[in-house]
Amino acid sequence: MLLLGKYLTQHFEGITLFEMRPVLSCPRCASAVREPSVWSSAYHCEQHGEVHPLRSAFSPSQDGLDGVLQSAEVPVWLPWPLPQGWLVTGFAVAGDERTGARGCTVALSGPNPIGGPAEMMLISEEPGIGLGARFAGLDGPDPGAQFAAGQPAAVVEFSNHEFPLWNVDTAGRAAFAGEVSGNWLWLVLWPETAGMLMVEPLPLRDLRDPGQDLDLPFGAPSPQLPS
Fold this sequence. Notes:
- The protein is of the alpha+beta class.
- It has a domain at about 55-205.
- It has helices at about 1-20, 60-70, 130-135; strands at about 25, 45, 50, 55, 75-80, 85-95, 100-110, 115-125, 155-160, 160-165, 175-180, 185-190, 200-205.
- The protein has a nine-stranded mixed β-sheet with strand order 5-13-9-10-11-12-8-7-6. Strands 1-4 form a two-stranded antiparallel sheet.
- Strand 9 and strand 10 (about 160-165) form a beta hairpin.
- The longest helix has 18 residues, at about 1-20.
């Protein structure tokens, strides 16, 4: 009986580990990706070719954040201090063990300034990844040819500098994008009226920076992130 228990434990543990493998998808269209092979070391999407795969979300917890920080090659942005009543609700990355995370997403939930609940997503990514465009509802991978043609619509603050963001033309949400230190910064909010949060400059922290002791409030996982 003891041997049978040991056998079952080993096999059920194997099944559990298999089922807990992250689900990988195209960062642009959410389609399943083809894993690297002897002919290519990259992940492939049937529609978009070689991609940095988006993995299933990390939990809204310190462990989840630590998992993101281990591989982040781009900033991991967080508004700080958080807007009143807002919580951190998850993380996601685009990349693999070979490349590291070339796109990072931080999700938050909180009250809409005009009433009701709202969702916010901050995405930092290298050009061409397509993660921000996906959450903004665009074909992507970047904001488009007419981007930054007019006046900035919002401002973020980081390390005593201000960075302009421009409106991105989309539907059903408010989306802003700009450039910080050579990477795209996207800020997407649901519903569209939650964009009023950007009336005032939004102070940001890069959670990769050392010496930060932030007591982050975590909430339930964001429905906007891949499950």
